[in-house]
Amino acid sequence: MASEPGSVIAAIDELLEGWDTFCESVRVTPVANGARRGRDRTMAQFAVVISLVTHVHAVAKVLRPAMPDGITVAHMPLVRSIYEATLTAAWCDEVPDSAEAIMKEEGRQRRNLDVAMRSAASFASAKPIPHVDWAEVETPSAVQGRNFEKLADDVALDGAYVLFKILSSFSHATVRVVDEYLIEGGGDLDMSFKEKPDPLGSEGWTLLVAACLVWAGMVANFYDPARTRRNALRAIAKRLEVSDELPIKMTAINRGSRRKVRPKGRSQ
Fold this sequence. Notes:
The protein is mainly alpha-helical. The chain has one domain (5-259). Helix content is 54%, strand content 4%. The strands form 2 sheets. Strands 1-4 form a two-stranded antiparallel ribbon. α1 (5-25) packs parallel to α9 (204-221), α1 runs antiparallel to α10 (230-240) and α3 (76-94) runs antiparallel to α7 (160-171).
């Protein structure tokens, strides 16, 4: 059963091994084929999607020694990264203007960082941060590229953003994190601190990582003309009792299909 830690861990190991084999033997391509025939991905989508899917697997490998029962608050930023990258990869794969929206936001962030660095004496001699000026690009999904809550709303997964908020509460410098290190005593001033946080005691996080590996792997599967991993991914998803693909709402796909313009130049 998917609720048994051993079966989930076995699935995770199988998924990671399958990904390594896929990377060694398959040449992915942005040219549409099979279920995605007629909708080629842009090279920008190709770069973002495959890189993020690779990141999902790389982070899962780092997290693997802590699973299934050793995940603490110290590991939650890794779980959050896996989840965020999975949703973004699935979204970017399906929404036609997604890569432009992401790069538009990246350009804004780099431009703002460059301005901030110029105003800080410690960074006065730093080289300018290169960025493409996407400010004038008309990208229908720009809001989603800038706001992860809006991006998560495009994903047909119940509670997608709520789960992200929960993961964030364990990942930022919050009182929730502070609580994981406190040992309260009998009085107001009677407390001590843990050297290491306790395991969170939930196998759900391990199952979430396994589901993300399935979803991310299936996204990469659509860039493989032979669909090398499709059946294996579907079989693992069935064992885990999760969907084998993370669907994106048609409203998001239609929105991203509107006409858009290209950036006018490069700023250094």
